[in-house]
Write a structure and sequence with these properties.
7-stranded parallel β-sheet, 17% strand, alpha/beta, 39% helix, 12 helices, binds uridine-5'-diphosphate, 347 residues
Length: 347
């Protein structure tokens, strides 16, 4: 443990949603640096096996008793809050779920934090707070007008944090992720949603023959090839940003909002082309209708976090990002997803 980390001795970081995709990669990086973690996850979407380090509590944010017990049992210094529903399409169909889980249950967390005098939080926000951007790349100061309930629920929570700071002295860093992708370069953990809705895993599952084809949602967007453009950022680079944010708050840093992306946009068709090069296999596609709630282009400016916290992505190239995801699929560990094992005939 280096000097800076002596501050953290005997203190723990509560990671809500730490069994999920970005949460589990962040816990792994935190442990590598000597931080102690307590993961709080209801395992609705997360995987117990993905929590490779630290302590684990099976709990829901709706459950105030278990939350309170967790804070009483462990000396929590700060919180990284990932636990949320995060699918744009589902949020359009079922907004109640999104406002309940991402806003109301999040308020429970803030309540118990304040009851215990815990006043530092790193919040998992999203590029979806911007909606259709007014310019590219998007700056943190640009207008926020979400086009779906998922983005709206995250924006509401960002605003709640702002007012909690004014009233209760809570300090926060909200990280607006663009498209998280890739897997732990050590190959231990990766992305495993069930059902899977994200582009890169679906493309790789198609390459593996687990799906017949990839649907391209919308080919009439105002982009060069008509498909949506996104900014893909490696999950380990995202994890690193959480650690920098945590350290900034620990040093007394002010509340902030930061974008996190690579600053490069790739269309859906371009992602599929890069993936074909990585996997050296054919990937069948089918043109489909637009998915409701999808803005045409989302590309970040991450200058602010680079300048203020010294963050720098290590896995910038889309090819490298897809390679790490592909290696994880090939390692067979993606088999937490029983459906995949079943289809392979391994069950
Ligand atoms: N997408 C697609 N086919 C799929 C899944 C996603 O064309 O089967 C598109 C989607 O419309 C979006 C981009 O790929 O433009 C990235 O979608 P994803 O769900 O991976 O992330 P999101 O942008 O929703 O966070």
């Amino acid at each position: 443990m280096n000097n800076e980390l002596t501050f953290w001795k005997d203190k723990k970081i509560l990671v809500t949603g730490g069994a999920g995709y970005i949460g589990s990669h962040t816990v792994k990086e935190l442990t590598k640096r000597g931080f102690e973690t307590v993961v709080y996850d209801n395992l609705e979407k997360g995987h117990r096996e993905a929590v490779v380090d630290g302590e684990f509590v099976l709990g829901d944010l709706a459950d105030l008793d278990t939350l309170r017990e967790t804070f009483t049992k462990h000396r929590i210094d700060s919180v990284i809050h990932f636990a949320a529903d995060s699918e744009v399409g589902e949020s359009v169909k079922n907004p109640a779920k999104y406002f309940q889980n991402n806003v109301a249950n999040g308020l429970n967390l803030l309540r118990v934090m304040l009851e215990n005098g815990v006043k530092k939080i790193v919040f998992s926000s999203t590029a979806a707070v911007y909606g259709e951007p007014e310019r590219i790349p998007i700056l943190e100061s640009d207008k926020t007008l979400p086009t779906n309930p998922y983005g709206e629920s995250k924006l509401i929570f960002e605003n709640i944090l702002k007012y909690y700071e004014l009233a209760y002295g809570l300090r926060y860093i909200s990280l607006r992720y663009f498209n998280a992708a890739g897997a732990d370069p050590d190959g231990l953990i990766g992305e495993d949603h069930n059902p899977e809705t994200h582009l890169i895993p679906l493309v790789l599952q198609t390459a593996l023959g687990l799906k017949d084809e990839v649907e391209i949602f919308g080919t009439d967007y105002d982009t060069p090839d008509g498909t949506c453009i996104r900014d893909y950022i490696h999950v380990t680079d995202l994890a690193e940003a959480h650690i920098l944010a945590l350290e900034a708050l620990a040093k007394g840093g002010e509340s902030k909002i930061y974008n996190l992306g690579n600053g490069n946009g790739y269309s859906v068709k371009e992602v599929i082309e890069v993936a074909k090069k990585v996997v050296r296999r054919e990937i069948k596609t089918v043109l489909s209708e637009r998915r409701q709630g999808d803005p045409s282009i989302l590309v970040a400016s991450s200058e602010k976090i680079m300048r203020e916290l010294g963050w720098k992505p290590k896995y910038e190239k889309l090819e490298t990002i897809i390679e790490t995801a592909w290696n994880w699929y090939k390692s067979n560990r993606a088999g937490w997803n029983m459906e995949i094992l079943y289809k392979r005939g391994d069950l």
